[in-house]
Design brief:
The chain has 435 residues and is α/β, with parallel strands linked by helices. It is built from 14 helices and 18 strands. The chain has a six-stranded parallel β-sheet. The protein has a five-stranded parallel β-sheet with strand order 2-1-3-4-5, with helices on both faces. A five-stranded mixed barrel has the order 14-15-16-18-17. Helix 12 links the parallel strand 12 and strand 13. The longest helix is centred in the C-terminal third of the chain and has 25 residues. The mean pLDDT is 94.
Length: 435
């Protein structure tokens, strides 16, 4: 039911954490836009805070954001503050007592109860209210929850068991996004390679890629958060043969030591990891691999860290991020392993790993100088077109910066594909000229 536009109350949303949270917020706002005026800043009758509860820094940011919100509420900026998401899924009982000024708490799995609380008469569906209008890419959450039991990760008991979104539902959502100017979809999940097992009793990510590639207007499909154990090989066939599937794979590996991988409950050893990387590079020539690593896992020795460094030198990942181990209560690791690597040692190992990767990244970027690539124009700023090729994912990778053409409105190029020649590079970004 829509309300009189003149009498609508204002609603504002703040989203913390990962892109999966962004999708949740956008589904909610699409339902609530029928009864509220959605504002991006300033005072509002209701402030929604979508929280993250994954690791310590994210939890601290979420708590600080809530505290700032209730303080602004006291000053009259907000009529009420409503909190949902991973932090409140995990800690709502204690937070209610600690921050009583919050008007309502909902978990990450409570989107429809939250809608009912706010007066909406619909449930979340395929509609999205894009919180960053104008950008030509969007995240598409293909499943929720996780059946993995990595010993360091709290996601399974925050988000629940793995639940795939049906292919036809995702195609409908993709069509809606394409109609709103989206040209690239970032496929996200807790584990994208697990997609389909619950619905179709088989891994169906390749089937989903085929279906999405038929959506008119969608030109690029990019896979994030894939899991190395039992990797579905038909996905590599799609990546090699389907021009809409980016030759890019985000595959968090976390470590290479057999003992550490076993303690992490990753379901794969170092040999299997190396073989998988080799198959990816063989079956998809030119594939760009992004991974993440954890340093300072309980019991990690200096020799095991050296194994990790040697592996990174060997694999030469085009993109790599890393973080130090953070003990999360309730996980197998927290209950069974002593967090015995000193914080200063963790920080030193992280710095050494990232210095190594910086050299690899620079070498990779310099190797691209002189090549001509097709790029998607995301934005323009300070006389430069901000672009990406299939080798760059938004928000986490560098960019291709292209000097704006001397004629025409650069804003008109946003969302279009152009060919550019790379002329120089640094560790993070490359610089190009229009062809």
């Amino acid at each position: 039911m829509k309300t009189d536009r003149k009498n609508r109350r204002k609603l504002r949303a703040v989203t913390l954490g990962c892109s999966k949270n962004t999708v949740d917020t956008e589904h909610l706002l699409a339902c609530l836009s029928d009864i509220f005026e959605i504002v991006s800043d300033g005072p509002a009758d209701i402030l929604l805070v979508n929280t993250c509860g994954f690791i310590g820094d994210a939890k601290e940011e979420s708590v600080n954001t809530i505290l700032e919100a209730v303080e602004e509420k006291k000053q009259g900026s907000f009529g009420s503050v409503v909190v949902f998401g991973c932090l409140s899924q995990r800690y709502a009982d204690s937070l209610r007592g600690e921050i009583p000024e919050v008007d309502a708490w909902f978990g990450a799995r409570d989107l429809n109860p939250l809608l009912r609380y706010l007066g909406a008469e619909v449930e979340t569906g395929t509609r999205r209210y894009l919180t960053e209008p104008g950008r030509p890419y969007a995240y598409l959450k293909i499943s929720e929850g996780c059946d993995r039991r990595c010993s360091y990760c709290a996601i399974p008991f925050i988000r629940g068991a793995h639940r795939s979104v049906p292919i036809e539902t995702l195609v409908e959502e993709a069509r809606s996004l394409a109609a709103n100017g989206i040209r690239e979809l970032e496929l996200i999940a807790q584990d994208s390679t697990f997609y389909g097992l619950d619905l179709y009793h088989r891994r169906a990510l390749a089937d989903l890629l085929r279906a999405l590639s038929e959506v008119e207007g969608i030109e690029w499909l990019r896979i994030h958060y894939s899991y190395p154990a039992s990797f579905p090989e038909d996905v590599l066939e799609q990546m090699a043969d389907n021009p809409k599937v980016c030759a890019y794979m985000d595959i968090p590996l976390q470590h290479i030591s057999d003992r550490i991988l076993d303690r992490m409950h990753r379901g794969i050893d170092g040999k299997g990891t190396r073989e998988l990387i080799a198959r990816m590079r063989e079956k998809v020539p030119g594939v760009v691999l992004r991974t993440t690593m954890i340093v300072g896992f309980p019991g990690e020795t200096g020799e095991e860290f050296k194994q990790l460094l040697d592996f990174v030198r060997e694999a030469r990942f085009e993109r790599l991020g890393a973080f130090t181990y953070s003990e999360e209560e309730g996980t197998f690791g927290a209950d069974n392993f002593e967090d015995d690597v000193d914080a200063s040692v963790k920080a030193g190992r992280l710095d050494e790993l990232m210095r190594l990767q910086s050299g690899i990244s620079l070498e990779y970027n310099l190797s691209r100088v002189g090549s001509v690539v097709r790029v998607l124009v995301d934005d323009f700023s300070a006389g430069m077109l901000v672009c990406r090729s299939q080798g760059e994912s938004p928000d986490v990778d560098g960019e291709i910066l292209v000097k704006c053409p001397g004629t025409g409105d650069p804003a008109s190029l946003v969302g279009s594909f152009i060919d550019v020649k790379i002329v120089s590079a640094d560790v993070y970004d490359v610089f190009a000229e229009p062809v």
